[in-house]
Amino acid sequence: MPNGEYLRYVALGDSQTEGLGDGDDTVGLRGFADRFAEHLAAVNPDLQYANLAVRGRLAGQVRAEQLGPALALRPDLATVVAGVNDILRPRFDAAEVAGHLEEMFAALTAAGAHVATVTFPDLSALVPLARPVAPRIADLNDRIRAAAARHGVTVAETARPVAVTDPRMWTTDRLHASSVGHERIAAALAHAVGLPGSDDTWTRPLPPRPTTPGGSAAAAELRWVAAFLGPWLGRRLRGRSSGDGRTAKRPTLQPLTTAVD
Known about the structure:
By secondary structure, the chain is of the alpha/beta class.
């Protein structure tokens, strides 16, 4: 769509696409996909939007559970964002994860959809305990770029700007984007697909923030382990997922009436 006038946008993915970190389950989740849909609707108010994402899903689960329903909706634009949950598993196979993503790229583009995806930032500057997975992230990003190139998929390079490591871009769990982060991802996608009025301001640093006294880094890490890493590991050991029993928040194409902030 040379003028960005997409009619049917479908989002596939996990918790980031569902919108965790931007709102909550009480007031409702927004997230980058909702925000990207708002950018699209600003160009074409007749846009119909579906979000099939479910938190906790691995890339293979996204392909198995969401690809068929997505194809049935006949999108002319789709986003596919998955793989972070795989990166965090003890047994990670970058080729296998990228293979699931490429299958979705191939099927959706063959059906006539313009597909967009993102790369994942290395957050070891924010989460020192994440340093061992940094090579996994880099490997998967390279495979995403290669698969995207083979199928004409648009890649929003959200891994690269220095701004993505600003703590304000992330929630206190350091795994999900904050409202500000989701807004930047949506703007990155809008820029990547060439929507009218989009630009590269999403890459620029956030305004300076006042200096506030802080406790020790070690104490902060201990609080994070207790509040977030511990419960996450507990679910893994019990074979549980945060997405157990959950379904897509927006399984059918619906009009979008909310304006962009």
